[in-house]
């Protein structure tokens, strides 16, 4: 499981062990947490790295995450999840390879590149946090970066005639991006752990928190070519470039970078609908991806989640079903395990929009282990939303404009949609997903727009099993940090 480091701005180091999957963290200046976006932490929300499950790592101390990337393959990333640390960097790529005996539906590429792209602000993360704490919204980003650097600071060298894999993640905090490579087609092969039908694209929209893998063949005349990212759905378009360099060329890039789509929502929606699973390809196990007939499973319940942007106590907040999340003084997972009263209440967020006034609450929704939920994200606002569910992959069965109704189910793709962990909801639109609730624990459901997440657009889903068995959930780690009202308890 190779990793990429990008921790200079946080003053910390990350070390991984390929076989035992230990992640040892040492932080010098602050008390953060690291979460692995898309890694499911099977039976192990103890290691999820968000404040609902873990205490912050004290400055100057070490903490070791012990995790198993069970039944997963694909491209993901990690980042600091507390406060507004994500705006400072501290992110990196995660590659989970298939086991050697399981066939992959494409030939091994000649090289494998990770591209971590997103928006960037001149103000540091503490200043941005102060803006939000004051009740204001973030300013427009100052630019975009690729692997932490500005335009043309990165060069990816390829040999003519060979094929390369690019794993692209949007690690920004506020903006969707479009990705393209001058003069080259991209063959989409994987989205967040799912092998896809291998459609060819000139450019790809990648929304906040999402990860894609494409194959690019170096089949053009030997010279330099622009790799371009640009903002989507913004009145002002920002862009940044890197260079695809042919090893047998002494030339550099020339001419203007290729333009891309800007505000066209219909174009992006149609591209999103074109993403399909490769039903005959094996996933992390040798059985074909199409052997899981999600469309034939009866859903156990429907959850409708509507995002809003209310003002509460004179300040800008963001809410889900009228509830704006506030952190408790103790991680919810610890309070649940030690049965500490008064930290949270299960059912403190409704599972349907209420239309009532927004309010502050440490919101936790109940869910039964082995349920199969239909979750509908409803977006009545004019801005694009991006939603992530920790601990689970889900099937993105439908998305469209307007209001969702039960009749919308007639448009669902119940055969070969993508299984993923992060999905977009277009302005004044809805997106529906099917979620197998097969992972016991306390799991964060959040906006990947980090200002919205920080100001309340998130909650926790408590997937509960009454069996109290290690078969369903691992015991609390012996090195679990204790804080808040959990201090004094024993692991």
Automatic annotation (TrEMBL):
Limits of the Plastocyanin-like domain: 24-99, 112-249, 330-466
Keywords assigned: Glycoprotein
Residues forming coiled coils: none
InterPro entries reported for this sequence: Cu-oxidase-like_N (IPR011707), Cu-oxidase_2nd (IPR001117), Cu-oxidase_C (IPR011706), Cu-oxidase_fam (IPR045087), Cupredoxin (IPR008972), CuRO_3_AO-like (IPR034275)
Family annotation (Pfam families): Cu-oxidase, Cu-oxidase_2, Cu-oxidase_3
Entry keyword Glycoprotein: yes
Top-level division of the source organism's lineage: Eukaryota
Gene3D superfamilies, alphabetized: Cupredoxins - blue copper proteins
Alphabetized SUPFAM superfamilies for the sequence: Cupredoxins
GO MF annotation: an example: copper ion binding
Family designation: Belongs to the multicopper oxidase family.
Descriptive protein name: L-ascorbate oxidase
Species this chain originates from: Citrus sinensis (Sweet orange)
